Each structure stands twice: as structure tokens, then as C-alpha cells.
Automatic annotation (TrEMBL):
<dbReference type="Pfam" id="PF00106">
    <property type="entry name" value="adh_short"/>
</dbReference>
<protein>
    <submittedName>
        <fullName>SDR family oxidoreductase</fullName>
    </submittedName>
</protein>
<keyword id="KW-0560">Oxidoreductase</keyword>
<dbReference type="GO" id="GO:0016491">
    <property type="term" value="F:oxidoreductase activity"/>
</dbReference>
<dbReference type="InterPro" id="IPR002347">
    <property type="entry name" value="SDR_fam"/>
</dbReference>
<comment type="similarity">
    <text>Belongs to the short-chain dehydrogenases/reductases (SDR) family.</text>
</comment>
<dbReference type="GO" id="GO:0016020">
    <property type="term" value="C:membrane"/>
</dbReference>
<dbReference type="InterPro" id="IPR036291">
    <property type="entry name" value="NAD(P)-bd_dom_sf"/>
</dbReference>
Length: 249
């Protein structure tokens, strides 16, 4: 059993990922702005679930949380950055401040987490850091340029750090969930019935979390879709935009 840190797990994919990892016997520490949905899990797993109200935009909050996790668990074996911000609006209506806010959560939040756990992982000569990415970070999509840009930047960051720390026993990976029925995806012009169930996605990610592959997918179908996105990103981006154009909510 291992010790796992997850940002953004009070709801959605992160919540069900946490639930499954706890059920499988692992120790999990969650960093999130809100914790109300996690309270029942705290009661069920008082010795294996730690919850820290922490903003991934705050370096001090992240450092304090990681220090407390290490005091309690002793090690951090896996760290997952799942917290995200996804505004939905046309680029011409999107101020530069929105890009900064999104990158502060999605990209710099991931980098802050990595910087806080890396010294400990390097010292123990093992560790795994995963960033939740998205297909739109590869293909692009209409109306979510800040989010898609930040996810694309995460892809490059994970590749760079995976090479840089390959000799230290620390690996980096990206998680590619399908379009999932969550609060952040609610504004998208896609009917809810075409979105994946967050419980199924979270459980699927938990199943493959220990894979050595750089890209982690919760199912074979999602893996094939992601491969298509990497293979022909522009064509897939146009196809997805065309398929969802004019979709009734």
C-alpha cells in the first residue's frame, strides 16, 4: 500500500479516485478548497484519509500541507494534480486576467505540487507525479482557450520533467479522462448523457494509476481516442468542434 496526495478531490473525478484508492487500502491526502463531500470518507477511513483545506495557488499552503502529510505518512509515493479551473467563453470575451487565473490553478498548481514533493521523492529514490490533462490540450476546442492552453502546457511540462528526473527514480505522467459529467464541464455545449460518469472514470483511473505508461487512461476506449488525438490533433479538434456545434444542452 502506498501514500498518495491528490489536489482537487472534494467532488467529481478526484472524489471517486480518492474513494477507490481508500477502498483498495492506500493512504490518501487531499488538498482542496472545500471538504464537505469528503467528511463521510474521513469517518470511514480515519487513519488513512487526511484532508487539508489548501489553495493550489498558494505556495505557502502547499508547503505546509506537504510537510504535515510527511509528518503523518512518512513518505509521499504518488502525487496527483487534479484541481482545475475551466471557464467557458469565447476568446474575444476573455480577458488576460482569466488566462492568468486558469494557469495559476491548472499549470502552476501542478508545478507547485511537483516542487514540494520532488525533494522527498528524490531522497527516497522513487516517486510518481501525475497531472490531469485533457484531450482538448492536444486538439484544441472552441470556447475554452485558457483551459486547453494550460492543459497543453502541462503535457509539455510532464514530458520535460520526466526526462529531467529519469535518473532519480521519479516519473511523470499525464492522466487523460474522457469528457466527464462534472461541475467544470457543465457549461460545455454537450448534453449530459454524452458525458462519462465521474464514478466510473475515477475508479478507472485508480485501476491504472500504477501503470508505467506516460499517458494514463481509465479505459481502452479512452486510450484509443487519445491516441487518435495525438496522431491527428488538428483533424480531431475540427471533428469534435463540428460534432458539438449547435448541440442542445
Amino acid at each position: 500500500m502506498v501514500n498518495i496526495v491528490i489536489t482537487g478531490a472534494n467532488e467529481g473525478i478526484g472524489y471517486y479516485l480518492t474513494e477507490k484508492l481508500l477502498a483498495d487500502g492506500h493512504h490518501v491526502a487531499v488538498l482542496d478548497l472545500r471538504m464537505e463531500n469528503l467528511r463521510p470518507l474521513e469517518c470511514d477511513f480515519p487513519d488513512r484519509l487526511l484532508c487539508f483545506p489548501a489553495d493550489v495557488r498558494s505556495e505557502a499552503a502547499m508547503e505546509e500541507a506537504v510537510e504535515k502529510i510527511l509528518e503523518r505518512f512518512g513518505t509521499v509515493d504518488i502525487a496527483v494534480h487534479n484541481a482545475c479551473l475551466c471557464p467557458f467563453q469565447k476568446e474575444e470575451e476573455t480577458d488576460l486576467s482569466v488566462y492568468r487565473q486558469v494557469f495559476d490553478v491548472n499549470y502552476y498548481g501542478a508545478l507547485r505540487l511537483a516542487k514540494k514533493v520532488l525533494p522527498h521523492m528524490r531522497a527516497q529514490r522513487r516517486g510518481k507525479i501525475l497531472f490531469t490533462s485533457s484531450g482538448v490540450g492536444v486538439t484544441g476546442f472552441v470556447g475554452i482557450a485558457p483551459y486547453a492552453s494550460a492543459k497543453g502546457a502541462l503535457e509539455a511540462l510532464a514530458k520535460c520533467l520526466n526526462l529531467e528526473y529519469s535518473g532519480d527514480g521519479v516519473t511523470f505522467h499525464v492522466i487523460h479522462p474522457p469528457l466527464t459529467r462534472t461541475k467544470s464541464s457543465a457549461p460545455l455545449p454537450v448534453p449530459g448523457e454524452f458525458m462519462a460518469d465521474p464514478r466510473k472514470v475515477g475508479y478507472g483511473i485508480a485501476k491504472y494509476l500504477f501503470s508505467r505508461r506516460f499517458v494514463i487512461c481509465p479505459s481502452l476506449g479512452q486510450k484509443l481516442q487519445v491516441l487518435a488525438c495525438y496522431w491527428m490533433p488538428v483533424r480531431m479538434g475540427k471533428l469534435l468542434a463540428k460534432m458539438t456545434a449547435g448541440c442542445p444542452k
